[in-house]
Amino acid sequence: GRFIVTYNQAFARVIRACGEPRRGQAGTWITPDMLDAFCRLHDEGWAHSVEVWAERRLVGGIYGLAIGRAFFGESMFSRETNASKTAMLALCRQLAAHDFLVLDCQLVSPHLLSLGASPMPRPEFARLLARACSQRTRFSGWPDEPHAAADLVET
Questions:
Q1: How many helical (H) and strand (E) elements, i.e. helices and strands, does the chain have?
Q2: How far is it, in rounded angstroms, from Cα 74 to Cα 25?
Q3: Three-state SS for 8?
Q4: Residue 8: what pLDDT?
Q5: Cβ 50 vs Cβ 7: under 8 Å
């Protein structure tokens, strides 16, 4: 219960944190041009972020694109244990509440598999995306107010 979750309140900070150096990785694809492009997409209502805070410090987050009823997760980060898991849970709750059909995680990793992600055969994925993206709506139902991460847990 020590985390606070917000949505779209620190988009540029989340994407910058996702681009910071990580152990075991050489470099990042999040270049200044990519940062600018995603910030423009955020300003236009296509790109979104979930922020996780502890004692007013940004400690975790995730960002991506919402197209129709598909969300394309681009990257996530964590500076404290369970912060990225909290961001993923908050994102999944919002997507489920708005009848999204898919959250594309892009790459298979042990971390994402531990959170419930599962690989999908390409033809099946393409059919799902065609259905999800054909609904030409933009997601606009992000909560405006911060809330305690404990609120995400079902009782």
A1: 5, 6
A2: 16
A3: coil
A4: 93
A5: yes
- The token pair at 2 is 């020590």
| DSSP letter string, 97-119 | HTT--EEE--S--HHHHHTT---
Strand arrangement, sheet containing 70-78: 102-104, 70-78, 57-67, 47-54, 4-7, 147-148
pTM of the model: 0.84
Note the pLDDT tens digit of each residue in 56-110: 999 999 999 999 899 999 999 999 999 999 999 999 999 988 889 889 987 777 7
Q: Furthest-apart CA pair in the chain: how many Å? A: 45
Q: What is the pLDDT of residue 97?
A: 87
Tell me the pLDDT band of 148, cut-offs 50, 70 and 90.
confident
User: What tokens does 122 get?
Assistant: 């390409």
Whose CA is closest to 103, among 84, 121, 124, 128? 128
CA distance 83 to 132: 28
C-alpha span between 82 and 128 (Å, rounded) = 30
Q: What angle do CA 45, 30, 60 make, to 5 degrees?
A: 70
Of 23, 2, 7, 1, the C-alpha closest to 87 is 7
pLDDT band at 25 (very low <50, low <70, confident <90, very high): low
